[in-house]
Amino acid sequence: MNVSEARDSIEKLADEIRKHNYNYYVLSKPVISDYEFDRLLQRLIELEKAFPALLSPDSPTQHVGGEITKDFRQIVHKYPMLSLGNTYSEEDIRDFEERIHKTIGYEVEYVCELKFDGVAIGLTYRNGRLVQAVTRGDGIRGDDVTTNVKTIKSIPLRLQGRDYPEEFEIRGEIILPHASFEKMNEQRMEDGEDPFANPRNAASGTLKMQDSAEVARRNLDGFFYYLPGNDLPFRTHYESLQAARLWGFKISEYAVRCKTIGDIFDYLSTWDQARHELPYDIDGIVIKVNDIRQQELLGFTAKSPRWAIACKFKAEQVSTRLLSVDFQVGRTGAVTPVANLEPVQLAGTVVKRATLHNAGVISTLDVRIGDMVFVEKGGEIIPKIISVDLGERPAGATQLNFITHCPECGTLLIRTEGEAAWYCPNEQGCPPQIKGKLEHFISRKAMNIDSLGEGKIEILFDNGLVHNYADLYNLTYDQLIGLEKTYEPSGEKKEKKISFREKTVSNILNGIDASKGVSFDRVLYALGIRFVGETVAKKLAFHFITVEKLMEADYDRLVEVEEIGEKIAQSIRSWFSDPQHTALIGKLRAAGILFRIDESLVTRLSDRLAGLTFVVSGTFQNFSRDELKKTIETHGGKNIGSISSKTSYLLAGENMGPEKRKKAEKLGVPIISESDFVKILLEN
Ligand code: IVH
Ligand 1 atom 16: the closest Cα is on which residue? Predict the structure, then answer.
C-alpha cells in the first residue's frame, strides 16, 4: 500500500469508526457488534502505526489515550465560567419567574433540563476539531485537561456536518455513570486504595490524572448544555442544543420547552422521582430562558446568569446520636462548634462529624449531648445538624454550654453586636489563626502554592520560620532543607512523615516564586479579610483596579460597589486601618506580589455599544445604576461623568437633577429611558 492509498483507507476507516462511536456512545444505538467495532479500530491502529505521518490528532484512535500530563496548564476562560443561582422551593421559582417577567415584560418560554452532578467543562472547537478542554477552576481560569478529555468516547474529536461556527466553545458536565463508578471502586478496594465517596469526586479525580490511558479505562462520559458567546447563529437556546446534537455532541434527550410555571413544576416533580432510575447522578433541574435575545437583556450578576436558575432536589436527611461537641478556631478567629456523632450513612458517605455553626444555632435548636439529631448534607462538604428529635431525648441529656475562652490560646472570646459568631481576638498569637491564614493564603483559589500543601505550613510554623504570609517570601534553601515531621492528615488514620529533601525544597521555593504572577483579585482574596470571599475580592479588585485605590476608599465609596454592604465595607476599612496589615502589604509588594488588576482580564460581552458614550443619572426601575454602567462597558460602550457635545446619550432615571436635563437639551444630546436603552442594546 502506498502513502496515498493509506491516506484514503485511514480517512475512510476513521469516518466509519466516528459514526459507530456516535451511534454507540452518543445515541446508545449501536448498529454493529462490539467485535466488529474492535476489528475496525484495530485495523486503523495498525495502519496508523505503519504510516505514522498520517496519524491525525483527531483520529478516533486517540480516545485510547497514552499521553502523560505532568502539570495541568492554567487557561483563562474566554467567557467566565459562572455557576447558577440555587433554589429549593416552588416559591423561589415563582420569584425567579416574576423577576424575569419584570424585565422582559411579555411572554417568556423556558427550557427545563436535568442538572448533571459532575465536573463542569468547556470544550473549544476550531474548524470542527476539538482543540481545548478546560475545567471551571475559579471561573476565570481553569485547568487544561484536553489530553484526558480526548479519551472520553462520547466527546467528538471531529464534528459532523458543516454548519458549525469556525470557532466556538461548548460547555457541559463530565460525569461518571453509576456502573463505571461501582466497577472502579471495587477495583480500588481490591488494590487497597480508599474508594471514592461519590461519582462526582471520582470524575473530578479522574480528570486530573496524569496518565490519560488510565483515564480512558475509567469510562467517563459527558453531557453538553450551553454554548457561550453572542455571535452564534441561534435564536433560542433550544435550537442551539438541537444543532449541537447534529454536530455530534451528547445532548440530553430530557431537555424540554415549558410555556407555563405549571409545566416547570411538573418537570421538577417528575424528575424528583425519576432521577433514581437514571444511570447517572443528577442533583436538580435547571430552568433557562429560551430566547437568546431575552437572555442577553437579562444579563449576568457577578456569579451567575439572571436568565437561568438551578432548582436542587431536597437533600437527604438521617437521624443519629450526638456524642460530644468540640470547639474549633478558624483562620479568622471564629469559634465553630463541631458535633461528634454516632457514625451514620448519608448520601453515599459515612458521617461522623457535623457543624453546629455558632452559639445562636445551639440555643435555637436547644440541642443537648445525647440527643438524636437530624443531619443533612447541605449541597457540599460538611454536613449540618438541622433539628433535634425531641421525642427521643434521653433522660439526663446534658445542656451544651458555649465556651468563654479560646480552646487554643486561652484568650477571652468576644462577640460583636449583631454577629452570631464568638471570636478569639488574639489574631497575631493564636496558632490555629496564624496557621489558618497561611493555609488560606497558599490555597488553590488564592495564591495556589500547592507545593506547600499537606501539612508543610505546619512544619514551617512549628520551626518558627513563618508567622505571617509575608514571611514565606524570605524563606531560603538552607532554612528548609532537612526539616521533618510526622503527622496525621485529617480524615485519615495512617500517620505520614514529611521530610524536606532537595526536591521538596526546590518545589516549595519555585511554588512561592510562581505565586508572584497571581492576579490581584486572588491576592486580595488570599489576604483573608473577614467577609472578603472570592466573589467580593473579584468585585473589589475589578472596581478599584489597584490596592492603593482600595485602601483610600472610605466607607461610602466601598458601599457604592455592587454587592458590598455595610458589614463587608466595615470589615475592609478596619482591616486596612491596622498598621500591622499595611506593613504586610508593604512586604508582599516588596517581594513582587501583584497589587494591580491586569485590565485585559475585564471581560467584554459584545461590541454592540462600541463608539457610544453614556451619562447615566437618576434611579431606575429594573436595574441599578451600577448594573447599567456595567452593561454599557461590557458591551463596548463608555460611561462618562458629565455631559458634553460628544455624549451619545443621557440615560435618565427618576430624580435626575434638572441641570443635567437642561444641558443635554442645550447640546442636543438625546435623553433616553431605561427601556430605550434596552432597545438600543438589542437593535444595535
Ligand atoms: S447551564 C451560564 N445547564 O451546574 C450557565 N449547568 O451551579 C451555564 N450544570 O455551573 C450553566 N447541569 O456546572 C447548566 N443542564 C445544565 C447543567 C448545568 C449541570 C452545572 C454547571 C453549572 C452548575 C450550576
Answer: 115
Same fold, 317-418 and 613-683: no
Query: Contact, 172 vs 223, CB < 8 A?
Result: yes
CA of 381 to the centre of ligand 1 (A): 19
pLDDT digits over 581-619, tens only? 999 999 999 999 999 987 655 566 677 788 889 999 998
pLDDT at res. 188 = 76
- For the domain made up of 520-601, give the CATH fold: DNA polymerase; domain 1 (1.10.150)
* pLDDT, position 380: 45
Per DSSP bridges, beta strands 282-289 and 110-116 are antiparallel
**Where does ligand 1 bind, in terms of residues with CB under 6 Å?**
82-84, 113, 115-116, 120, 173, 225-226, 286, 305, 308, 310
Query: Is 638 annotated as catalytic?
Result: no
**CATH code reported for the domain at 613-683:** 3.40.50.10190
Report residue 448 as a C-alpha cell: 495556589
What are 150-209's pLDDT values in tens digits?
Answer: 999 999 999 998 899 999 999 999 999 999 998 888 877 766 666 787 889 899 999 999
- Minimum CA distance residue for ligand 1 atom 3: 225
* Nearest CA owner, ligand 1 atom 22: 83
pTM more than 0.90: no
- The domain 317-418 is placed in CATH, from the list 3.40.50.2000, 2.40.50.140, 3.40.395.10, 3.40.50.1980, at 2.40.50.140
Tell me the best of 112, 115, 241, 289 to mutate to test the pocket of ligand 1, counting ligand atoms within 8 Å of each CB and taking the most. Answer: 115
At residue 365, the 3 state secondary structure works out as: helix
Nearest CA to ligand 1 atom 21: 120
Estimate the crossing angle of helix 199-207 against helix 178-190, to 10 degrees: 70
Mean pLDDT over each residue of the chain, to the nearest integer: 89
Q: DSSP per residue over 472-483, as a string?
A: GGG--HHHHTT-
Q: Is 532 left (phi over 0), alpha (psi -120 to 50) or beta?
A: beta
Q: Give residue 561 CA to ligand 1 midpoint distance, Å.
A: 27
CA of 159 from ligand 1 middle (Å) equals 23
What distance in angstroms lies between residue 127's CA and the mean position of ligand 1's atoms?
26
Handedness of CA 166, 167, 172, 174 (dihedral sign): positive
What's the CATH number for 431-517? 1.10.150.20
Residue 256 vs residues 70, 223, 667: alpha-carbon distances, Å: 41, 15, 52
pLDDT given at position 676: 87
What are the pLDDT digits (tens) for 500-524? 999 999 999 999 999 999 999 999 9
Backbone φ, ψ for residue 273 (5° rounding): -85, -55
**Spans of all domains in the chain:** 3-64, 74-312, 317-418, 431-517, 520-601, 613-683
User: Does the domain made of 74-312 have the CATH classification 3.10.20.580?
Assistant: no
* CA-228 nearest atom, ligand 1: 2
Nearest-CA residue for ligand 1 atom 10 is 83
From the candidates 70, 78, 102, 115, give the one annotated as an active-site residue.
115
Check whether domain 3-64 has CATH 1.10.287.610, yes or no: yes
Calculate how far, in angstroms, residue 199's C-alpha sits from the geometric centre of ligand 1: 17
pLDDT tens digits for range 562-576: 778 888 999 999 999
